[in-house]
Write a structure and sequence with these properties.
By secondary structure, the chain is an all-alpha fold. It is built from 18 helices and no strands.
Amino acid sequence: MEQKHVTKRVTATILSMSLLTVMAGAAIAPALGIIKAHFASAPALTVQLIVSMPALLIIITNLFFLSISRHLRTRAIATTGLLLYVAAGGGCFFVDNIYVLLLMRALLGISVGLIMPLSTGLLAYYFPPEEQARLMGLSAAMNQMGGVVATFLAGLLATIEWNYAFLVYLMGLIAVVMVWLWLPDEQLGSANKRGIPFEPRQLLKFHPSVIGMLLLMMIFFIYPTNFAIIARQQTALSSEAVTMIMVGLDVVAFFVGLVFGQLMHWFRQPIKYFAPLFFLLGYATLLLSSAPMMMAGSAFIGMACGVGVPYLNTIASIKGGRNSATTVMPLLSAALYLGQFVSPLVVMPLAKTLFGTADLTAPYKVGIVLCLIFLVQVWTTRHFQSLPPVADHPQSGK
């Protein structure tokens, strides 16, 4: 399908999938305390796996996405992923065994592994490079909005009963209907004839974006895993106030995503440094430990995430071309969730080793160190990179 024939409905359908992907783990995070109380006899690590289990299966599924796309067309992949998303996510409502719950969460991870490469890769497939910055920004904005809406609804539903939080995944039914009605049925994997599920040479080709996404997510996830604990101990802020500040970060990232196309047009070359610099400013500000500085630091981190994810997706999709959905986008998706998963495993031991157990803000200091590494990675891999023209206004659709 040529880009000129891509309607606004097709674009909205692709973006609807972006709205759902972040909900794999984030949606249930506010209800984790209530879930932990319900499964009081289960080990704490087992309960924590309810949030992290989907990430592992997303990574594995992404690595097999190339093979999947050779056998199934886009509508079949999207429909399978979305129906599994609704069944596995919403099906947890009926489960009262933690090990069955973990199995359902693993199936949810498989579903997101099918959906996520399409949510960005189809934008590269249908639209020219000069339009991709605006659309990747919108995709990132929808991702952030999904996090805000899902977190709010899951927290509200969990006050009724622990299992009600999982009903938030029924939002996927809206995307199912949109896919059935409007998503074109493309064969994305037909151009790639190799018989292996994952091609290592793709990692060599796209390593600047893949490693960049891994670093970005490792740095970002220092915030949600530590902010609430540190803020409560350093200030007199209530739990509600801390939650509002954290939701505010997602709102900031959402609005940055909305204007990312313009930012890419205005700051064509320096924008590559925005994410590491905003992260650096954010964690340095959080070290000041006052309520206003915590709000400002959270806003800076929201800006970093809001500009960093669409930038990496845009650059990778431009380099990958129309085959991005089966080449670089699964790798970026895997790197994104791998960064989320390994962040606490890397950051907390480093924080204790470098700054001691008594330093409450040690994770933020590790974040600053990782930001400097991120800056070096950007400089060494993108310093001489040239970019194609970027559209300075939205392209009209049908």
